[in-house]
């Protein structure tokens, strides 16, 4: 007698799914909604800085995107050491470097990329001309000179400022309070 092998069949009964967890009820929302980030520049000054950063990337200059600051005339500037680089989208060349020389003047050079920026800084550093007479003084915009002088003064005052820890401040206040004597009221 020949025996036939039966083929095994799979069970078709579905598995039991776990019951959903009960919803947590809370009286307070612990997370704040995230603020909506504005798209694009919001003002003309931010747009000038964005244009300068884009031109900076195109020219491959070593200036970070966030280093650009607006000027009142719609242009943007960035500091690179002692050099102030001005971006003007309405004229060619797009960048102008104002570099101080050892003799006290600011030299103005057009900048189109990293090599011309390096050349401008080198020429200003090697300057041997005395700038005391009007024949050799560069024609630099007064706003740029004021900006450069203001930046140099800010750097100098920041370097002269002493850093104090909270402990030093507390000790100084305590010493001042201990030294103070109460004053008498004046007689009328």
Please count the beta strands (DSSP E, at least 2 residues each). Answer: 5
Q: What would the average pLDDT be, to the nearest integer?
A: 78
Structural shape: flat
H/E series: HEEEEEHHH
Per DSSP, the total helix count is: 4
Distance separating the two termini: 137 Å
> What's the arrangement of strands in the largest beta sheet?
1-2-3-4-5
**Mind summarizing the main beta sheet?**
5 strands, antiparallel
Sheet-strand content, in percent, reads 5-15%
Q: What structural category arises from helix and sheet content?
A: alpha+beta
Textual characterization of the structure:
The chain has 188 residues and is an alpha+beta fold. The protein has a domain at 44-128 and 139-158. The chain is built from 4 helices and 5 strands; from the N terminus they run αβββββααα. Strand 4 (95-100) and strand 5 form a beta hairpin. The relative contact order is 0.08. The mean pLDDT is 78.
What secondary-structure arrangement, pairings included, does this model have?
Layout (H helix, E strand, L loop, with lengths): L43 H16 L9 E2 L5 E5 L2 E5 L7 E6 L5 E6 L2 H12 L16 H19 L5 H14 L9
Antiparallel strand pairs: 1-2, 2-3, 3-4, 4-5
Short description:
With 188 residues, the protein is α+β, with helices and mostly antiparallel strands. Helix content is 32%, strand content 13%.
What characteristics describe this protein?
single chain; 188 residues; alpha+beta; 5-stranded antiparallel β-sheet; 4 helices; 5 strands
